[in-house]
Design goal:
The structure is a homodimer. By secondary structure, chain A is mostly helical. Chain A has 15 helices and two strands. A two-stranded antiparallel sheet of chain A has the order 1-2. Chain A starts with a helix and ends with a helix. In chain A, 48% of the residues are buried. At the A-B interface, helix 4, helix 6 and helix 7 of A face helix 4, helix 6 and helix 7 of B.
Chain lengths: 324, 324
C-alpha cells in the first residue's frame, strides 16, 4: 500500500498529463487554469485509497480519480457563476478571468471529459461506473439548487439542511470511494458500504466546517471568525438555534439576522452568546458524532483485513480532528 | 417499418412521460418548459428511423432518441445564455424566464440526464454508446466555442467555417443515426457509415440554410430576407465572397460590412448583388451538392436491403429540397 502523501504526489503528476493542449484553446485554457490552481484533491485521493484497499493498482484507480476531480472542478466553475464569486482558491474565478460564456462552455466540456475518463476503465465495469457517476451528478445539481433555494426561504429545517449538504457535498465523497473500490476489485456490496461510509463521513465533515467557523479560531487562537454569522448563512448552528430559541433569545436572534451589518464583530459576539446559551456547540458535536459513527459502522461491516483499512481510517480521522 | 409521422407521434407521446416531476421543482421546471415548447425533433426521429432500418423496435430506439433530444436541448439552454438570446421557438428563453443560475444548473442536469437515458439500453452496448455520445458532446462544445471565436476574428476561412458547422451541428445528426442503428442491431461498421451519412448531410443542410437566408424567399415570394447579411453573420456565402472579391467588389463588401445599419434593405440588396456577380449562389449549390453526394455515397456503401433505406432517404430528400 502507498501512503496518502505518495498517492497525492502520484495523482498530481499524472493529472498534469491530462491538461488539455488542443484546439480551440479558448475552450481548454479555463480548464487548465482552474486545475492548475490546485485544491486539496480529496476526492481523487479517496478514490486511489479505496482502489488500493481492495488490492487494485493505483494506475487503475487513476481514471475514476481524475473523473471525480474533473467533475468537482466543473461544479466549482459553474457554482462560482451562480454565486457571483470573485475568487476561488485565492485567484480570480473563471467567469471573471475568461468571461461568462467561457465559464459556462468550459464547464460543460469538463463535465463531458469526466465521463470520458471512465472509458479508460475496464469495459465490463463501465456500465456500473457510469450509473453511479450519473446518479451522483444529478444529486450534486439537486443539492446546489436546494442551497440556492435556501437563500430566499424563510424556514429551513435542520433535516432539509442535512439533505442539502448530503447531496451537494457528501455523495461525491462516497462516490469517489465507491468508484475506486470497484476498479480495485471490490464487490458491488463492498463498494456500496464504502459509499455509505464516505457519504456519512462527508456529512460529519460539513457539520464540522459549520462548527469551526464559529468555534475553531476561538479555541485555538482566541479570536472569533464567524464569517457564516456575518453573512446570515443557514448553517446547522443557525438553523438549530432558530429551532430552539424562544423568548428573548428568539428576539435577539431575529434582531441580529436583520441588523448589525455595520458592526460585524458585535454581531458575531452576540450571536455566539445565543449559541452558547442554547448549547448549540454541544448539539452540533452530537450531530457530527452521529454521522461519524454511522460512517464507522459502515466501515466495520466491511469484511476485509483490518490492516487494509488503516490508511483510510487515519486519513479520515485527521480530517475529522482538524481544529481549523 | 413505421412512417416518419408515426415515429414522430410515438416520440412525442413517450417524451411526455420523461418530463421530470420531482424535487426540487425549481431545477426541473425549466427543463420541462423548454421541452414543452417543442421543436422539430429531427435528432430523435433520425435515431428511431435508424433503429428500424436494422430491424430494431422503436421502443429500443426510444432511449438513445430521448438522450440526443435532451442533449440538444441542453445545448440550446446554455447557448441561449452565451448568445444573450431573448427568444427560443417564439417563447422567452430559459435564462430570462427563470434566471441565469437556473438556466446554467438545469442545463447541467439535463446533460447528465441524457447520459442516464443510455442506461436503459442493453448493457453490452452501453460502453460504445457512451463513447460515441461523449465524443460528439465534446465536438459540439468545440463547435460552439469556434462559432463564438469567429465573431471577433478578422479572417475566417471557408474550411474553418465548414469545420465549425460540422462540429456544432452535423456530428450530432450523425450520432443520432449511429446510436439508433446500434440499438437496432447494426454492426459497428454499418453504424459508422450512417454516422458519415448524417454528418455530411448535416453539413449540406446547414449550407442550405445559409443559402436560403438570402435566396429562398426571393425565388418563392419575390421578397428579400437576408437576416444573415444584416447581422454580418459569417456564413458560407459571406466567407466565400470575401475570399473571391477583388477590386470594387472587395471595396463594396468591406463598405457594407461596416456601414448600412440604418438601411438594412439597401444593404441586403447591394450585398446580394455582389454575391450574384461573384456567382456565390452557384458555388454554394456546388458545395451543398458535394456534401450531399458524400452522404449518399456513405448510404450506398451500406449493404442492407434498399427498401430499408427508403424512409431515411425520403426524409432527407424532403429536408434537402425545402424552399424556405
Amino acid at each position: 500500500m502507498t501512503t496518502t502523501k505518495q498517492l497525492n504526489t502520484y495523482f498530481q503528476e499524472r493529472l498534469q498529463e491530462e491538461f488539455i493542449r488542443q484546439e480551440p484553446q479558448s475552450l481548454y485554457d479555463p480548464i487548465n487554469y482552474l486545475l492548475e490552481v490546485g485544491g486539496k484533491r480529496i476526492r481523487p485521493l479517496l478514490c486511489l485509497i479505496a482502489c488500493e484497499m481492495f488490492g487494485g493498482d493505483k494506475a487503475d484507480g487513476f481514471w475514476p480519480a481524475v473523473a471525480v476531480e474533473f467533475f468537482h472542478n466543473f461544479t466549482l466553475m459553474h457554482d462560482d457563476i451562480m454565486d457571483e464569486a470573485p475568487l476561488r482558491r485565492g485567484r480570480e474565478t473563471v467567469h471573471l478571468k475568461y468571461g461568462l460564456p467561457s465559464a459556462i462552455l468550459s464547464g460543460d466540456v469538463m463535465l463531458v471529459k469526466s465521463y470520458q475518463f471512465l472509458e479508460k476503465c475496464p469495459v465490463a465495469l463501465q456500465p456500473v461506473l457510469y450509473r453511479h457517476f450519473s446518479q451522483v451528478a444529478v444529486d450534486v445539481c439537486e443539492g446546489q439548487q436546494m442551497d440556492m433555494n435556501f437563500e430566499t426561504m424563510h424556514e429551513v429545517s435542520v433535516e432539509e439542511y442535512i439533505q442539502m449538504i448530503s447531496l451537494k457535498t457528501s455523495v461525491l465523497l462516497g462516490c469517489s470511494l465507491r468508484l475506486g473500490a470497484l476498479v480495485g476489485g471490490a464487490s458491488a456490496e463492498e463498494a456500496a458500504q464504502l459509499y455509505e461510509y464516505g457519504k456519512n463521513a462527508g456529512i460529519a465533515f460539513q457539520l464540522k466546517d459549520d462548527l469551526l467557523d464559529v468555534y475553531a479560531a476561538q479555541e485555538d487562537f482566541g479570536k472569533i471568525v464567524g464569517g457564516d454569522i456575518i453573512r446570515n448563512k443557514k448553517t446547522f448552528l443557525l438553523l438549530k438555534a432558530l429551532e430552539l430559541a424562544e423568548g428573548k433569545y428568539a428576539q435577539q436572534l431575529d434582531f441580529w439576522l436583520h441588523e448589525g451589518e455595520d458592526m460585524p464583530d458585535k454581531k458575531v459576539e452576540e450571536v455566539t452568546k445565543i449559541y452558547n446559551a442554547l448549547s448549540i456547540k454541544e448539539l452540533a458535536e452530537q450531530e457530527i458524532n452521529k454521522y461519524y459513527q454511522k460512517a464507522l459502522q459502515a466501515m466495520d461491516s466491511l469484511t476485509i483485513d483490518p490492516s487494509r483499512k488503516t490508511i483510510l481510517n487515519h486519513y479520515m480521522e485527521a480530517v475529522m480532528n482538524r481544529k481549523y
